[in-house]
Design brief:
Length: 170
């Protein structure tokens, strides 16, 4: 009896295995989740290629700023003066610009040599670049350092010197 039992048990196991393997095979052949695709989005070809790093060059160095600006050029300064200063100080520095009437204190008369010639280059540079407040004067005289480069200020100063009467003696 034992033998028969063993045999039938074996048979049962075999049958079971066979069935199972078929079933399992079917199961294993059941639709698998599709492979994630595209595996890599860049392989789809629509992602822009980053430029090769070898192309990256250091930004061009700016020309070294000279410690002291070039001497001002009055003719170049005339243009900036008309744009930035004439509305208050007047086209010829008479303090009669279109905006001047409403201002108190009045814009300085750059044609007034008696006063203007007493101001040194550094006095002028200071008040033009950093504004009236920086020298204890009216904030109506704005700081121009944001709008004008040091060289432009030098040019404007050179032009202002040509306006003075009596003439400015360096
Ligand atoms: C919005 C009007 C206005 C504009 C624009 C203006 N200024 Fe003035 N500026 C004044 C006023 C007002 C004063 C007088 C300040 C005071 O006496 O307190 C003055 C004074 C000055 C003085 C005399 C400072 C001193 O020590 O007495 C200089 C120099 C000057 N301005 C240069 C310039 C230059 C250069 C520009 C153009 C880049 C300019 N200003 C543009 C209003 C202006």
């Amino acid at each position: 009896m034992k033998r028969i039992e063993q045999t039938s048990l074996l048979a049962a196991i075999c049958l079971g295995l066979a069935l199972c393997s078929t079933a399992c095979k079917e199961q294993s052949e059941a639709p698998k989740p599709p492979p994630a695709q595209p595996l890599n989005p860049t392989e789809a070809g629509d992602a822009p290629e980053p430029p090769p790093p070898s192309d990256a060059k250091p930004p061009p160095k700016e020309a070294p700023v000279p410690a002291a600006a070039e001497p001002g050029d009055p003719e170049t300064g005339r243009a900036d003066y008309q744009i930035f200063c004439a509305s208050c100080h007047g086209p010829t520095g008479d303090g009669d610009g279109a905006v001047a009437q409403g201002l108190e204190p009045k814009p300085a008369r750059h044609s007034d040599g008696a006063y203007m010639n007493s101001l040194s280059h550094d006095d002028l540079f200071q008040v033009i670049k950093f504004g009236g407040l920086s020298v204890g004067k009216s904030p109506l005289m704005a700081p121009w350092g944001g709008a004008l480069s040091d060289q432009q200020i030098e040019n404007v100063i050179a032009f202002m010197r040509t306006l003075a009467d009596p003439p400015y003696q360096p």
